[in-house]
Write a structure and sequence with these properties.
Distance between the termini: 23 Å
Number of strands: 18
Strand content: 25-35%
Amino acid sequence: MVRAAVLPAVGAPLETVSIELPEPGPGQVRVRLAAAGVCHSDLSLATGVLRQPVPAVLGHEGSGTVVSVGGGVTSFAPGDRVVLNWAPSCGECHFCVALEEPWLCQRANAATTEPYARTASGEELYPGLSVAAFAEETVVPVNAVLPAPDGVPLTDAALLGCAALTGYGAVHHSARVRAGEAVAVFGVGGVGLATLQAARIAGAERIVAVDVAAGKQPLAVEAGATDFVLASDTTAKEIRALTGGVGVDVAIECVGRGAAIRTAWNSTRRGGRTTVVGIGGKDDTVSFSALEVFHFARTLTGCVFGNCVPSRDLPVLAEHVREGRLDLSALVTERIGLDGIPAAFEAMTEGRGGRALVVFEED
């Protein structure tokens, strides 16, 4: 039996209970968690914005140590330090093979729909985003496990599983920020803070952070922001004023709201790029006139998992960490236990703080 934070039903509060976790079957790995980040995507699963079979154990950003492996697993052994990968590519579908875009893999979350554990009463449990990291231990497919990089504390390495890769990828793969450009980042949560650091690493000259909470300004500045704008009806005008009336070359939206996407678009210069990282609701719409699409010649793109290939990008991020260019601990504003996840959800809903990190064991 292991302790886990269980979502009994969509919209219901999480319950910290003991669950029965089976030994890994063929092609599976059992991992003892060191840490798990509380991501806005977990909140979206809990509230029904994203689909998730229930009851479920959420949590998809995690790191830990291999406890045991199932039949046929030769790439990992007990004692190995690992980072969990919530979107493993199958390597066989059209997106993985023909398009070489594994971040859009059709089967990345196939394990989400398969029960992986049981409650003490015998009820089947599903793994949130295939990972189920809000638990002391989890069992995942072997392709959902990556070697934790050397020289990175295991608790910090949890952030590499989602926030850091997403922010880095949004800057380097989707928006393709170039040295000397001006960048605006909307939303200073865990992903937003990683995005600000990535923009600084990319050599952006002006980096404008935007958030609804004035208290996030110090966090934004520490992450690399040169300017901070409090979100309002005049945000786009303020950003254009900071850039000589032109607008930023790149706007990256990390909130997941139609109004924020529209403001990010309005803040971007003619011919600039607007990248949407945040996950919004299906009924939250954004509209553009046909004339403005032509006139501004801007590019609006979605961005899934930062368009990252974890096996390729994780070593790059690790080197940035080792060289002091990327500070993973700066994304974390609170370290909590499993019982603290509901409060972390509430803080995200209210726009407070950066990333809350569930810590099971310190390095």
